[in-house]
Design brief:
By secondary structure, the chain is of the alpha/beta class. It has a single domain, classed as 3-Layer(aba) Sandwich (Rossmann fold). Helices cover 32% and strands 19% of the residues. Strands 1, 2, 3, 4, 5, 6 and 7 form a 7-stranded parallel sheet that branches.
Length: 173
Amino acid sequence: MPKKALIIVDMLNDFVDEKGALYCGDTARSIVPFIQERLTGYRNRKDLVIYLQDSHDEDDKEFEKFPKHSVAGTWGCDVIPELSPQAGETVIPKKRYSGFYGTDLENVLKAYDVDEIEVVGVCTSICVMDTVGGLANRDYKIGVPVKGVADFDPEMHQFSLKRMEKIYGADVS
């Protein structure tokens, strides 16, 4: 039986709460119930759950491109309350778009001997797609449910879904 993992990307206050510094809009809020449902299923099966958490330094160079957001240790960096990690679930802070860049994600996936990975969260065209690319480069079987991802730019969202399916071989359904 394949070992599965759910990766929840950047479902943080600064992206999903309307008071957040980089609020992705109602589309980000609309995916929360779907992610809650998927999370419950993974938890019930005792599959691996991983949260990727944008965790920037105060003077991060990314703030030259985007408004200051998800500074480590702030409210904006916290996972939204509806999806709070439980004891034993892995939270991986990251400073760049890909969940692999400068993190322990690859080692965590290897340690659990994962075969299949489902990726949900925000933003489809940035951190979700870059993480899915990293998974594809490591030959994982990847699923990206359309109901589980959102972006502040609808055009880029659609492009990213197509790219993840056609280039990275993800099952986008």
